[in-house]
Structure formats: C-alpha cells, structure tokens
Design brief:
alpha+beta, five-stranded mixed β-sheet, 49% helix
C-alpha cells in the first residue's frame, strides 16, 4: 500500500481474479450499510501510519439469531499497522460473512450501482498510486526496482508541508525510509539511505544525498546514452520561470555540453580569484556603510540590512550602475526583491497563467525595469569601454580556447540576472543566519572579535583577499559552519530525461530529482551524532571543527552544489560575506539577540531564515 512495485502479468491476473471474487461481498455490504460515500473516504485515506489499536474497525453486528463470531473479532491485533482501513474492511468481508447478512429488497438499479461502486473500490485499491500520483511506476525497459519510499501527500501535488521547511521535511522522510529499510533488514542501521522517493512538485521525485551518489547522478548531465539528466528550467506549464530567469544564461543551456562550458568560461573570467581580489576594497566600503547603519539604530532587522548590502554590491559592483539618488537606489532594491521573491513563489510558478496575465504581474514589471537598466549599462560600456565591474568583464570577455567567441548581449543580460539571484539572495540569507548563530553563541562571537583585532595589528585596517583567507581561519570556520547547518533549501533540481540506474535502483524517465546538500551534511560520518545534535543550531554550531583535520568535513560538505554546475560565483560570495563579518567584528563591541530562539519561526526561501529577520541590538 502506498508504494508502486513492478509485478508480472501472471500475478496481476491472479490479484484481479481475487479482487473480482470479492465483489459479491462488497455488493452485500454496501447494500446492507446503505452507503457508497466510503469511496471518497477510501480514495483519500492515508496509506501509512494507520494505528488499528487506536482506531479499531467496527463491522456491522450480525443479526440477533446469528450466534457465530464475526470474522473481524480477534484479528485486528495481527493486522499490519500500515494497512489501509478500507483494505482491512475488504479483508474481513468474506463471502461467508456476506451471506450471513440478510439482504434488503434491491432494485436492479441499486444492484448495478453497488456493483459499480465495488468495482471502483477494487480498481482504486489496485491503482491508487497511478491515479493520485501519476508517473510513479517503474520503467518497464529496466528490471531494477524503484528507490524505497512512499508516494503520498495531496493527490497530484504531493505533501504541502514540504514547502514550509524543505530541509526539515527531507530529513524526517529520509529517517522514516531508513528505519523501514533497517527494520526489514534490507540495509545496515549504520548505513544511511542515499536514494529514496517521494511525490512533490506534481511529479514523482528521487532524493539523492552523499557526495559520491550525487556526483554519479550529476555526471549523467549532457549524456546522450545510458541515462541522462538535465537542469530544471521550468515549473508548471506557463513559462513564467523561463522568462524571469532568461533562456540564455548558463542555467538555460541544458542540451549542449560544449555551449554550456563555453558560457561558463566566458562568464567565469569575471569571477576568478584575481578579479574578486580587485573588488575587495569596494566590498569593504559597502560593508563599513552597512555596519555604520547598524550602529545608528537601537535595533536592527539583520535580514533587511544585509539584503540592502548585497543589493548595493549588485548594482555597484556586479552591474556597475551609477544610481545617484536615494529614490533610484530604493527603486532598484525594490525591483530586485520583487523579482527574486517570485523565483521561489512555487504556487505562482505552477499556475497556468496566460501571457497577458503574466505581463500584469509585479514580478514581470520588475524584470522589465531591471532589463532596461542592464541594457543601458551595456550601451554605456560599448561606447566608453571597460569600467572594472563584473558585467564589464563579461561584455569584453573572449573565449581563451578559440580567441574569438564572445557573449551575445542577451547572454550577458541573462547571466547577470543569474549572478544577482545566486549572489545577493544566498549571501544575504547566509549572513542573516550567521548573525543568528553568533547571537546564540557569545563565546564564538568573542573569538571572532579577537581574531579581527589580531588581524588589524598585523595588517592594518585594509582587507585583502589573500590576507583574510590566510590569517582568519576562525572567520572561515564561522562561515562554513553556518552553511553546513543551514544550506540551500531542498537542493539542486534536475529533470530525468532518460532512466538512470544508480546503486541497483532506477530513477525513471520523466521523474524529477533533488540532490540535497542538507541531507549530505546531516549524514556526513565526520560530524554525525545519533541524536541529531550535530545539525542543531544550539548544540551543533562548532566553528572549531573546521580547525582540526580530524573533525573537518571534506567531500560531504557541498553548500555550493556539485557537478558541472558547481556555483561559479562562490569566490565572490565568500569574499563578500567574510568582508562583512570582519568589518562587523572590528566595529561592534557586541550585540544582543532579540529574536526568540526558544520559539523560532522560520521563513522558507532559497535558504531558510528566521521569520522575524533576526532582530539585534548593538552596544
């Protein structure tokens, strides 16, 4: 129940024959009970966690002149607790029991209705997953079974609770699958379940964790034979996500490996360690302005402050705009916030909206405004030449392999949007979480402050990438530990274009797949603790683990993704976050965390953050 398995045609015929033999019993029961409404209750009844001891099945009592026991009596304790309630009824409704019930006078039409309802019940029982979770069947061309796990949640959509806290949901479901596997002696209790299934985003989905399995899966991208996967570029059928992200960014190239890696080389010229090093002085100026704003207020919502910081970096450094008034800056920030928020608004992305409605959406208008500003800047660069911005490097980049290939105008535009989203949103969210963790752990904050005071004594106030990477190991540990505990939500998404076989299970063509950094971090043998405290924000935040090779996570640490699409902007993002935390530790003596961590409420997004934005008061 709740899990699709492949069976032979002989077994199918046998099961169908057995099911058809039960129809007379169903007819009698339905006629006696006088209700066919149980169909709806059965169809949507949960297929798991049915506790028969708390919800005992009570069949209709036999007539007074009958003295034999009901077949149900004394059997409920031996039933499998995972069995569906309607299935339990069917098991007990034997032909003998049906014959013991005096049938009322039945018209031909009521007999036909009862038969049709009975047949429907049998068919729904047999094809439940295929009806409510379409596509959740094995590829008949392959003999390997599907991954373990259950399809469940809202029919045709999946579990709605998944969207509230994706990483937490995946952790809980992975534990359930693992416990089931170990209980059935399918796998060792010490070995985590790395591949399992569920139904989400309206499709059967395989969840993959563990760097080795993830690498094996992602290496199938751009493969033409033997199982292939591709970057997910759309949700639903409206095409809104494609418009919002653009078709000619690196993310939009899903079929041609040569074109993708050419794009990556050209865009990457603006994001090399050398290019990022040149931008550190500007990053320091932005960080100092943000900390000064923080000190000018009694209390600060860090999420808002840090979003302003990363958006200022976006328009000044990434695009190279010259916004000369507070009104222009506010308009730019608002447009980016509206546009980026729509990229994780899954109900909106799934909605089959026609183009004329899409054009009236605030996110559509925001994208058009940003498009216009980027186009104006490209015109300026082509007229006046390079200006040191990230986009300037992209406009004038030439492929090193052939010496002539350049990015088209649309490729520049779409990849700038990709960098803004990947850089501004993820960096501000990660820094927001870092402030939460530092506020919860005052001792860590004091160590961070001391390291920065020592740094200033040695190097002065000026920050360089080389110095901060070499002489601030504790700062590096704080940032890494933040991303270990609170990485990107859900993970990287891929469409399965051709059935993939991994570890003896198949992920069928047409499925969706998520590789999970959070689960990979949770299952890392270097950090794993049986009680789960290694992933707890109170007990598990230990930057010191990164200072010792014996406790330092290695291959199982993947906050920036993996495979062909490993985050190209990770050097810039890391430099931006380190610079802010360094400046903060130098200028702020301390701060009080006002956010109520005892009753934490979270907000889902590209990265999970506290719902109140982390409220602090400096001193």
């Amino acid at each position: 129940e709740g899990q699709v398995t492949s069976t032979s045609s002989t077994k199918d015929r046998s099961k169908m024959k057995h099911s058809m033999m039960m129809i007379p019993a169903f007819v009698a029961l339905l006629a006696k009970i006088g209700s066919s409404s149980s169909l709806a209750a059965f169809a949507f009844a949960p297929s798991r966690h049915i506790n028969t001891s708390r919800h005992p099945i009570k069949p209709p009592p036999p007539p007074p002149f009958q003295t034999h026991k009901s077949p149900f009596i004394g059997r409920s304790s031996s039933l499998n607790p995972k069995t569906n309630c309607a299935t339990i009824h069917a098991m007990g409704a034997t032909s003998a029991f049906a014959r013991s019930i005096p049938l009322p006078t039945m018209t031909p039409s009521s007999i036909i209705k009862a038969i049709l309802v009975s047949i429907t019940l049998v068919l729904v029982a047999k094809f439940r997953d295929r009806i409510f979770y379409p596509g959740a069947v094995p590829d008949p061309l392959h003999s390997e079974p599907l991954p373990p796990g259950n399809m469940g949640g809202c029919p045709w959509l999946g579990p709605i609770s998944f969207l509230a806290n994706m990483n937490k949901y995946l952790s809980q479901e992975a534990t359930k699958v693992h416990n089931s596997q170990t209980h059935d002696n399918i796998m060792s209790a010490d070995e985590p379940t790395r591949i399992w299934k569920l139904f989400t985003f309206g499709k059967p989905t395989a969840v993959i964790s563990g760097s080795a399995k993830i690498k094996q899966f992602l290496n199938r991208e751009f493969k033409k034979e033997g199982g292939g996967v591709s970057q997910m570029t759309e949700l639903g059928t409206s095409g809104l996500l494609t418009f919002l992200f653009g078709e000619e960014s690196m993310s939009g190239e899903t079929s041609d490996s040569t074109n993708y890696h050419t794009l990556r080389r050209l865009v990457g010229q603006a994001l090399t360690p050398e290019s990022v090093s040149k931008g550190i002085p500007f990053l320091q100026i932005c960080a100092e302005e943000a900390v000064d704003d923080m000190l000018a207020n009694d209390t600060v919502v860090m999420a808002e402050l840090l979003q302003k910081l990363t958006l200022d970096v976006a328009w000044r450094q990434i695009i190279g705009l010259k916004l000369n008034s507070a009104e222009e800056i506010t308009k730019f920030r608002s447009a980016v916030k509206t546009w980026s928020a729509s990229l994780t608004n899954y109900p909106l992305l799934f909605a089959p909206l026609p183009v004329w409605i899409q054009k009236r959406l605030s996110c559509y208008k925001a994208k058009m405004y940003l498009n216009e500003k980027i186009e104006e800047k490209i015109d300026e660069l082509e007229r006046d030449g390079p200006d040191g911005s990230t986009m300037s490097a992209m406009v004038f980049a030439t492929d090193e392999e052939d010496g002539k290939t350049k990015l088209t105008r649309q490729q520049v535009i779409d990849n700038i949007f990709l960098l803004i989203f990947a850089g501004a949103e993820t960096s501000s969210n990660t820094l927001t979480n870092a402030m939460l963790l530092l506020g919860m752990h005052p001792t860590v904050w004091k160590k961070l402050v001391k390291e920065q005071h020592d740094f200033v004594k040695k190097h002065g106030n000026t920050i360089t990438k080389e110095d901060i990477d070499r002489d601030c190991p504790y700062l590096d540990g704080v940032l890494r530990e933040t991303m270990r505990l609170l990485p990107i939500s859900a993970g990287g998404a891929r469409d399965v274009d051709d059935t993939v076989i991994i570890d003896g299970v198949q992920i069928p063509k047409g499925w969706f797949s998520i590789y999970s950094p959070a689960l990979t971090h949770e299952q890392d043998p270097k950090t794993f603790l049986e009680d789960g405290s290694h992933m707890d924000i109170q007990d598990g935040f230990k930057p010191e683990r990164w200072m010792d090779a014996g406790t330092r996570p290695t291959t199982e640490y993947i906050p920036y993704g993996a495979g062909h699409r490993y985050c190209l902007g990770h050097t810039l993002a890391t430099a931006e976050m380190k610079t802010f935390l360094a400046v903060l530790a130098r200028k702020v003596e301390g701060f009080n965390l006002i956010t109520n961590t005892a009753n934490m409420k979270w907000k889902e997004g590209i990265i999970l953050t506290p719902k109140d934005g982390v409220l602090v008061a400096t001193f």
